[in-house]
Write a structure and sequence with these properties.
The chain has helices at about 25-50, 55-60, 60-75, 85-100, 110-125, 130-160, 175-265, 270-300, 315-320, 340-360, 400-410, and strands spanning about 325-335, 365-375, 375-385, 415-420, 425-430. It is α+β, with helices and mostly antiparallel strands and about 450 residues long. A five-stranded mixed β-sheet has the order 1-2-3-5-4, covered by helices on one side. Helix 1 runs antiparallel to helix 3 and helix 5 (about 110-125) packs parallel to helix 7. The chain is elongated and about 130 Å long. The two termini are about 60 Å apart. Residues about 1-15, about 100-105, about 155-170, about 395 and about 435-440 have low confidence and may be disordered.
């Protein structure tokens, strides 16, 4: 059964900030089982009473007493769902029992009576949302119990026409006062414990609700921040695409129009070729800038730091150098200007190769990083003299597969595998021509 709210405050719809304690899904089954168990104990207790002299001396009507005890026990079925109503019914039944017993030989089994009373006070404190109402209901409940006890005791003690005890000797005024005072003190502790545990259950449920509410608000705030970040990134990408595409497409359109007019005018083919070369150059530059943007988005990790390039390669080597592996860096040739995509690719490949060497080559190994600027290509090699190992798919990128994708994107070649006689090598060659600006 689905959970439903405990007794409402005053019939008004609860606000979002008001705590309404929800009943558990299996509350009806659980409370029904509890009521049946208490009723069963009540029956056993009264059956045991039949075997004693107390039942004979009290001359109680067993059938009425048993029926009354069962009614009291089955109030537990709805003690959590309707705590105020159950408290009112319980109070009326106890008051009715107190005064009916003056004329009829009827009572109730004490253990179930006390337990149901305890659970009634507990449920009002644990489940009623209106805390002021819960307070006064419990106060009224306790006062009604005490007043009923005092009234019956006074009538029994001072009215000589009332005979409930049969052969049991009458109590003196002092004895009656002692019994009554002791009963009131014990009941005070009994009611106070029920009051305390009910209030504690309410407070714990409310604290849990506050934590859940705070967690939900935090999750909503995080979702809003994430959505805002996505929207901002979309706007950023849109602006970048507009700047790249619009400019170069406009240039290509102008030169294409000029080429068309030259062809129509049957001008010198060399002039037409010149216009077409402008179109080719603009398209290559547009592809190069789009490629750089794609790498920027691919490598973005949420930070505002610039993307690494070949100028940071010596620092990468220095960081890789350790007490267990010696890493050196050598650069040869005359550095040439290459695209950001090429620089990023060479840096990431070196980073991945060094990571693999650190994980798999072993200790006391020499790792050499070499960067050679040739006339037609840039060559990056990372070699070690350690143990040969299989390609792995973990590291700073996506392992060997990630290196292949990066190198292929800039029209380069990747060579990797065991060295002779031992060790491992990773060699990348990237052409220093416009081919580095093409997307595979």
């Amino acid at each position: 059964m689905s959970s439903s709210p405990a007794q409402s405050v005053d019939g008004a719809a609860p606000s979002e900030t008001q705590f309404i304690r929800k009943l558990p899904e299996n509350w009806l089954r659980t409370d029904t089982i509890l009521a049946v168990v208490v009723a069963f104990i009540s029956v056993l207790s009264l059956q045991a009473l039949l075997l004693t002299d107390i039942y004979t001396a009290s001359r109680l009507d067993f059938a009425l007493t048993q029926a009354f005890s069962l009614v009291i026990s089955f109030l537990l079925v709805f003690y959590r769902r309707f705590p105020i109503a159950i408290a009112a019914i319980y109070t009326l039944l106890i008051v009715a029992l107190a005064f009916i017993s003056l004329s009829l030989n009827i009572s109730s089994e004490s253990y179930s009576l006390l337990f149901v009373g305890f659970m009634t006070i507990y449920s009002v404190g644990a489940w009623v949302s209106n805390r002021r109402l819960a307070f006064w209901v419990r106060v009224g409940f306790v006062l009604a119990q005490w007043c009923g006890t005092i009234a019956v005791s006074v009538i029994v003690g001072f009215d000589e026409t009332v005979d409930l005890t049969g052969d049991i000797p009458d109590l003196s005024t002092g004895d009656l006062t002692y019994v009554l005072g002791t009963t009131l003190v014990i009941s005070l502790g009994y009611y106070a414990s029920a009051w305390y545990f009910g209030g504690r259950a309410w407070n714990r449920a409310k604290e849990r609700w506050k934590l859940e509410t705070a967690h939900d608000k935090l999750a909503q705030a995080n979702a809003k921040v994430a959505d805002a970040a996505v929207q901002a990134e979309r706007l950023h990408i849109a602006r970048e695409l507009h700047d790249v595409v619009a400019h170069h497409v406009t240039v290509m359109g102008v030169h294409a129009s000029a080429a068309r007019r030259l062809v129509e005018a049957q001008r010198d083919p060399a002039v037409v070729v010149e216009q077409l070369e402008h179109i080719e150059a603009s398209s290559a530059q547009a592809v190069h800038e789009l490629q750089t943007m794609v790498y920027t988005l691919r490598d973005q990790d949420g930070s505002a730091e610039p993307l690494p390039d070949l100028s940071q390669l010596p620092e990468l080597v220095r960081q890789a150098d350790s007490t267990t592996q010696t890493v050196t860096f050598e650069m040869s040739g005359q550095p040439v200007e290459v695209s950001a995509a090429v620089e990023l690719t060479l840096y990431r490949v070196a980073q991945e190769a060094l990571s693999n060497a650190r994980k798999h080559a072993g200790d006391d190994v020499e790792v050499k990083v070499e960067l050679d600027y040739g006339h037609t290509a840039i060559t990056l090699s990372v070699t070690d003299n350690g143990t040969a190992y299989d390609p792995v798919l973990n590291g700073t990128g996506t392992g060997i597969q990630g290196m292949k994708e990066r190198v292929n994107a800039v029209d380069g070649t990747l060579e990797y595998g065991p060295r002779t006689p031992y060790g491992w090598k990773v060699i990348v060659r990237v052409p220093c021509t416009k081919s580095t600006e093409r997307v595979s």
